[in-house]
Write a structure and sequence with these properties.
Elements: E1 2-6, H1 16-29, E2 34-39, E3 46-48, E4 51-55, H2 74-87, H3 102-110, H4 118-128, E5 133-137, H5 142-152, E6 155-160, H6 164-167, H7 174-185, E7 190-193, H8 196-204, E8 210-211, H9 218-222, H10 227-237, E9 244-248, H11 253-265, E10 273-277, E11 284-286, E12 289-291, H12 297-306, E13 309-312, H13 322-329, E14 333-336, E15 353-354, H14 361-369, H15 372-387, H16 391-394, H17 396-410
Parallel strand pairs: 1-2, 1-5, 2-4, 5-6, 6-7, 7-8, 9-10, 9-13, 10-12, 13-14, 14-15
Antiparallel strand pairs: 3-4, 11-12
Length: 411
């Protein structure tokens, strides 16, 4: 029984998406004889047990936050994309990238990256040949990959981590993104969203979809680093004693907006240190605001344990928020917005504190700082909710499709 997982982004920049992807690799790897994993990045092929990792870098990437210092500008992207679209006989109208955000350009460009790279296409074709089931993460490559799956007789499973037409920050690009996204949704044998709301939207648009919510590995939250590890973390990053409010996020624009919110409130709550980590903000400090940059898994685990509370003040997003369920798994009091808790059945004041407006964040932080018993109660309820989303249980539907593909192979 052979499976493949195709992931379209580098894994060098930790994010909620890379966390889900790593859980997929563990889950699927346990249930098949061999698993081929593909990532579009620099790297040498290597094998870990029955899991074989494959790498081919993108030839051309538009400059954006996820590829600092590299890539090309919007003008070249537009010229190149127009040639692709002409060859593809796209009729949606004029595509204008000049003046659009880097995030918006990258979404459109992602649908054509594979078209631009024959070496990558050949590598993926070789991976799919002989596979029984292929998991396609994100819709970007579906139009090229699903036909290869059909030719090989492999079951195709497409998981949409977001509804890209809703997260695209440029209204002028949304029609293009929606058209390409909907086209991708029409191809696979099985279509998944990472929240019930997203799946319902796909069904309403005529695409049968199942919800496989973003899960978490609850084992990490249950592990407490020893005091030496926590002390080393404080020493390395010069973290002061006392209360810490913590946020972690990748390069996505909503995470950077959350950092702006936290930077704005930090001077007004001097009794607390506000710490952020991840690609959302470069390393630095200003008063009681500290940005650590990207952390290792061990450092991130230590930071969660050092934190007094977790902040998730997101104002945009689709799917389900993995950073939220990750915070709950560490048994911490969490302050979040409806967008930050999206995809999970949260009751305000039970498993988390919910705020609707940025102005509510300061009083809620101060209330929790002053009430240790309430923080403890919130943390216990948070951990209980997170345990319902352990990845071994959440990915059960993927397991059913693996077994169906196994039966198909035997037949």
């Amino acid at each position: 029984m052979k499976a493949a997982i195709l992931y379209p982004h580098t894994t060098r920049f930790p994010s909620g998406a890379t966390l889900r992807f790593s859980q997929m690799v563990e889950y699927v790897g346990k249930r098949v004889d061999s698993l081929e994993v593909f990532v579009p990045d620099e790297g040498k092929e290597w094998t870990d047990g029955n899991v074989h990792w494959n790498f081919v870098p993108y030839d051309l990437t538009p400059r954006n936050e996820a590829t600092p210092g590299g890539g090309v500008d919007a003008a070249l992207c537009e010229v190149t994309l127009r040639l692709y679209l002409l060859a593809d006989q796209k009729k949606e109208g004029d595509l204008k990238l000049i003046g659009m955000t880097r995030a918006g350009i990258d979404i459109v460009w992602s649908f054509y990256r594979l078209f631009n790279n024959p070496a990558m296409m050949a590598k993926i074709a070789g991976i799919i040949e002989g596979a029984d089931i292929v998991f396609i993460e994100y819709p970007y490559w579906a139009r090229w990959i699903v036909p290869l799956c059909r030719k090989a007789g492999a079951t195709s499973v497409l998981t949409a981590y977001d509804v890209l037409a809703l997260t695209c920050p440029d209204p002028g690009l949304v029609p293009w993104v929606k058209a390409m996204e909907n086209e991708a949704f029409s191809f696979p044998d099985h279509l998944c969203a990472v929240s019930r709301a997203d799946a319902a939207g796909m069904v309403a648009d005529g695409f049968p979809a199942e919800a496989v919510t973003n899960p978490i590995d609850c084992r990490k939250g249950a592990e407490t680093p020893n005091e030496k590890v926590l002390w080393a973390m404080r020493e390395k990053y010069k973290l002061p004693e006392g209360s810490i409010a913590f946020f972690v996020g990748g390069t996505w624009f909503a995470n950077r907006k959350a950092v702006e919110i936290i930077m704005g409130i930090a001077p007004r709550v001097p009794e607390c240190t506000f710490v952020v980590a991840g690609g959302c903000c470069g390393a630095g400090r200003n008063g009681n605001f500290i940005s650590l940059g990207v952390l290792s898994d061990r450092e991130l685990q230590a930071m969660y344990h050092l934190a007094t509370m977790i902040l998730v003040p997101l104002r945009a997003g689709t799917g389900s928020s993995l950073k939220f369920i990750e915070a709950l798994s560490y048994g911490k009091a969490v302050i979040t917005t409806p967008e930050g808790a999206r995809g999970y059945p949260v009751v305000d004041g039970d498993s988390a504190v919910m705020i609707d407006r940025e102005e509510e964040l300061i009083p809620r932080v101060r209330e929790l700082l002053a009430d240790a018993p309430r923080r403890e109660a919130l943390g216990k309820a948070a951990r209980a909710l997170a345990e319902q989303y352990h990845f071994e249980a959440v990915f059960a539907l993927y397991g059913q499709w693996i077994e169906a593909a196994r039966a198909k192979r035997k037949a």
